[in-house]
Structures
1.
Amino acid sequence: MLDYEVVIKPVVTEKTSAAYGARKEYAFRAHPKATKHQIKEAIEQLFDVRVLKVRTMQQRAKIKTMGRTKGLSTRWKKAYVTLHEDDSIEVFEG
């Protein structure tokens, strides 16, 4: 997989913004089959930072109702990435 296929987009919520403000921990939406090692390499190459730790979790599919029909949304992986204290990602800072 390519780097931009492994890391899809940043996840910006109140909880994640508090995490990167306090612990230099950033949240990303990742490919469901990506490993921690692949996520670490992709973040380091895309943003030119040093990654110390990667934690991942699988987000379950949810039932969506549209009119009379029900369907499942796709499952996805959330990756929490802890950076070295001297590094930061500008996407989250601004």
2.
Amino acid sequence: MYVQGFLVAVPEDKKAAYAEMAMRVAHKFQEYGVTEIVESWEEDVTDGKVTDFRMATKAEPGEKIVFSWMIWPDKATCDAASEKMQSDPFWQEDMSDMPFDGKRMMWGGFKPIYTTGRD
């Protein structure tokens, strides 16, 4: 198992547009081999004193935090998907109007050290 995590601030009034975009890209990632995707919209995110999700994303008033992750069978499948994305016109044509500031999005890949409920 390999996990990619994502964090982004999205204008609250663009929640529906974000959800629509997330569903579109989920289908594409499923073609590439992802086994699970979770998209989570802020419900209970507290402000920290040293750091927090809002500071990390430079969230502005009226923006909500989206925390999401994708589960891949392994890093090799994830890396192969990344390669496919470079030449797939979907990412240039269909993703030209994102409902958030992509420069403030962060992501990374992680190898789990412990999970529950999975083999």
3.
Amino acid sequence: MKLFGQKRKETKTYDPALLTPAIRSSICTGEKAAGFTEKATGRFREVMLIRDERDLAEFRRRYGIEEEIETIY
């Protein structure tokens, strides 16, 4: 039984009326970051680094995202 070393699986929320989920990808290095773009300004706010498909699945689970995520280069 693991009580103290266990991470909590929390679900966070965002306002879909104001924010759009997006992946920002570097053309040069291939580094990817998941976050949200503001619909009003187009500004990107980074939430987490995406290293592989598991990180992307965790981002989707954490924020309850089921639709396609836009990739920004």
